[in-house]
Design brief:
Heat Shock Protein 90; about 55% helix; Beta-Lactamase; 3 domains; five-stranded antiparallel β-sheet; Helix Hairpins; rod-shaped
Length: about 500
């Protein structure tokens, strides 16, 4: 798939970090604006309805007092050709109020009969509705019907006595238009939409620019990795824009360094294998050619040369055996034969086997057990771990030195520690001692013997047991190897 198409699909599926930042910024920028507009418009609507209702209600209360004062409910007859002047004034006031608020006012008597209707439609009819009934009980009702555009309210006509009490003599049922409120709301909505459009354009532009700026360091990392992959550069990448990019750069540089180390190790391993295998062959070839060139050589010389050839064959066989053992230590293919083993008894056997080697250099070999340790291990590989570590401690030790082996455990792991008083390991060599064929002192490698594969094999065997191996060393003072292995084996 083409990179451009893949990038587009990543954006559409929101797998792109830039797309996600872009969407988040848009939501953060636009949603509050829309919510604020809705709250402001709704708040205005509620407040405007309350104010309009309160204003009309105050005027209706004044009219209600006029009705009581002029005994309108007792004496008013809409069909009479003769009306009191006060009644005509009240009718005029009601008509004026109705026209002013583009509404309708009905006066309902105590018998629920409509005495006056400014629309002249319901006069003489009986009006029994929930609002009227509640108002006769003393409850003022005010309802806003935004769908049909009117406010309906009830006003009790109360005849108040001197002691402050009063009875409801009638009800004014009023409906007024919300045209003023509606027109203002439409204007507010138009302005709000215009503001929203401008805000959306600004937020989208801002989000596009900012998301690009925020993700640009990651793009630089991707570009640097691509250049490194293509082979245009071998330099470490460094993008210090954010803490996260610094961490990514450092992690990648460490990975790159590790890969380079592994590649160098592979090349060195091939070179070392070739050298280690070729050296005995070269020696055998030289010895054989010497014998061929001397057909009359004495038997003693033949025996000496054949002995040297046999030694070189043993050395070649030892190298090949260790290489095969190391190959079989592959974590994915190596079989382990787990059994319950007394680690202390196994250590005693290993030390007994190696004490003759230690006596040649007058090295004291001791075992210190803090407690009895029984663990689920592969006995053969555990023997290999102990033998290699103790044998190295003897080989690289000084005359009259000491090798102390310690054994301890807790509820999960046991530790096998080998301390020596040998020459120690230089600090710069500590990370390399597990590499195949690596030798700290190459000048004495032939004298000391071995193949240079012991610690590599030991580390692989430890990892097969899901354990760990570590070393501390001081040059000229000795080294301490610590092996930590679970008491109970946990497979793949």
């Amino acid at each position: 798939m083409k990179p451009g198409l893949q990038k587009f699909l990543d954006v559409v599926r929101l797998r792109s970090l830039r797309a996600r930042i872009f969407i988040i910024l848009i939501l953060v920028g636009i949603l509050p604006n829309i919510l604020m507009e809705m709250v402001i418009v709704k708040t205005y609507e509620i407040k405007a309805v309350e104010q309009r209702s309160e204003t009309v209600q105050n005027q209706l209360k004044i009219l209600a007092n006029h009705l009581i004062a002029n005994e309108f409910l007792e004496n008013y007859n809409p069909n009479s050709p003769y009306k009191l002047e006060s009644h005509e004034i009240i009718e005029a006031e009601l008509d004026m109020l109705s026209n002013l608020y583009e509404g309708r006012v009905m006066i309902i008597g105590k018998s629920h009969r409509v005495l006056l209707d400014t629309y002249n439609i319901s006069e003489g009819r009986t009006m029994i509705s929930e609002e009227v009934v509640k108002c006769f009980r003393g409850e003022n009702i005010s309802n806003y019907d935004a769908e049909h555009g009117y406010i309906e309210m009830t006003t009790p006509i109360v005849n108040t006595t001197d002691d402050g009490d009063g009875t409801v003599q009638g009800v004014m049922l009023t409906s007024i238009s919300d045209s003023t409120i509606s027109s203002t709301m439409k204007s507010l909505n138009r302005n709000a939409i215009a503001v929203e459009i401008i805000t959306i354009v600004l937020v989208v532009t801002f989000s596009f620019i900012v998301s690009g700026m925020l993700t640009r360091p990651f793009e630089r990392i991707t570009k640097a990795i691509a250049e490194l992959k293509a082979g245009y550069s071998n330099e470490p990448i460094s993008v210090k824009s954010y803490t996260e990019t610094v961490h990514i750069s450092d992690a990648f540089n460490q990975l790159q360094s590790r890969m380079k180390t592994l590649d160098d190790s592979r090349k060195e391993f091939v070179s070392n294998v070739s050298h280690e295998l070729k050296t005995p062959l070269t020696s055998m070839k030289v010895l054989a050619d010497s014998l061929i060139a001397q057909p009359d050589a004495p038997a003693e010389l033949y025996r000496e040369f054949m002995g040297d050839i046999a030694s070189e064959i043993d050395r070649e066989n030892s190298i090949i055996t260790d290489l095969l053992a190391l190959t079989k230590m592959d974590l994915n293919t190596q079989e382990v034969n787990i059994s319950s083993v007394n680690i202390g008894d196994l250590a005693e056997i290993i030390l007994k086997r190696l004490r003759p080697i230690a006596r040649k250099k007058d090295i004291e070999l001791t075992l210190e057990e803090q407690r009895e340790v029984v663990a689920d291990v592969d006995e053969v590989k555990m023997s290999l771990i102990m033998t290699n570590l103790v044998e190295n401690a003897i080989k690289y030790n000084k005359e009259h030195g000491t090798v102390k082996v310690s054994l301890d455990s807790d509820i999960q792991y046991f530790t096998f520690i080998v301390e020596d008083t040998g020459c120690g390991i230089p600090e710069e060599s500590l990370p390399l001692i597990y590499e195949r064929f690596y030798r700290v002192d190459k000048s004495h490698s032939r004298e000391i013997g071995g193949t240079g594969l012991g610690l590599a094999i030991t580390r692989s065997a430890v990892l097969l047991h899901r354990g760990s191996i570590s070393v501390t060393s001081e040059e000229g003072a000795g080294s301490t190897f610590t092996v930590k292995i679970p008491l109970t084996y946990v497979g793949n």
